[in-house]
Design a protein that fits this description.
- Helix 1 packs parallel to helix 6 and helix 8 runs parallel beside helix 13.
- The protein is built from 13 helices and eleven strands.
- The chain is of the alpha/beta class and 279 residues long.
- The chain is elongated.
- Strands 7-6-5-10-8-11-9 form a seven-stranded parallel beta sheet.
Length: 279
């Protein structure tokens, strides 16, 4: 595989990658870090709307390169620069406690909101005021698993490219369109204009998810709004929705966390749409 190209944590390539831990630099360079074999494998396979590869550079230890030779070969085939480096160098760039030896530098891949609307989405997750990066990434993963057509992060939500968000998405970041920085009212009005019904998920919602399913109201194009982990959705956001829906608690649990509630809601919609033959 050759000798390590990066012999010092102070190498310019390492310094440039390390700076991407900060949102300001990510925004300036329009690049982010994807760590681990799953995320890097998905990054290698992904191409932007312009057809260009998403992965720009790949840092790997000799041990990881031997274990994941297929990923290294695929990265090289896309034209990405592959850098071999000792563990100490990867540790300088990695945002995890135990780096897995593969770290990719990727181009931003978010989708313009107008393109999301133009595609005629049938199931969308809207993250409004979601501040925890792990939750944001996990909801994105749930949306991907449920077969959603897109995810929208409002302008009051966490950065899509936060390293914790990227890790929590487990590669789903590369699977479906994600629009970022959209004001919540603009997101709602745009989706409604595209014929999408807006459901706000809230533990104190007037409507019950089971009742919605029984009434057959969830088979059409639907967007779910999920709110902040601590205080949920503000009243002004709830007022924008066509209905405010609660997930029923049949046991003694006080509530569901954000990602669990999102999974329940998205899968309920996906099931209703499949029964109707929409998906």
């Amino acid at each position: 595989m050759g000798t390590p190209e990066l012999i010092s944590p102070r190498s310019p390539r390492v310094t440039a990658a390390r700076r991407l831990a900060k949102r300001a630099f990510r925004g300036k360079e329009r690049r982010f870090i994807a760590e681990g074999p799953q995320a890097v494998r998905e990054a290698v396979a992904h191409r932007g709307a312009d057809g260009e590869p998403t992965l720009l550079e790949l840092f790997t230890t000799a041990e990881a390169a031997e274990r994941y030779g297929d990923i290294i070969d695929a990265a090289r085939a896309t034209g990405a620069r592959v850098h071999f480096a000792p563990d100490t160098v990867l540790a300088e760039v990695s945002q995890t406690v135990t780096p897995q030896g593969l770290l990719g530098v990727c181009r931003f891949l978010d989708t313009p909101f107008a393109d999301v609307l133009a595609a005629g989405p049938r199931l969308v997750a809207v993250l409004a005021h979601v501040r925890d990066p792990g939750n944001a990434g996990t909801v994105l993963r749930c949306a991907d698993a449920a077969g959603a057509d897109a995810v929208v992060l409002t302008d009051a939500s966490v950065d899509l490219y936060n390293p914790k968000s990227v890790r929590a998405s487990a590669g789903s970041l590369f699977h479906l369109p994600v629009a970022v920085g959209v004001p919540v009212e603009q997101a709602v009005r745009g989706l409604q204009g595209a014929g999408v019904r807006i459901l706000a998920a809230d533990g104190a919602g007037e409507d019950d998810l089971d009742d919605e399913l029984d009434a057959g109201t969830m088979a059409g194009p639907t967007a779910w709004i999920f709110g902040n982990e601590a205080w949920g959705l503000p009243e002004e956001t709830r007022a924008l929705a066509d209905a405010v829906v609660r997930v029923p608690i049949h046991g003694k649990a006080e509530s569901l966390n954000l990602a669990t509630a999102a999974a329940v809601c998205l899968y309920a919609s996906a099931r209703a749409q499949r029964v109707r033959g929409m998906r």
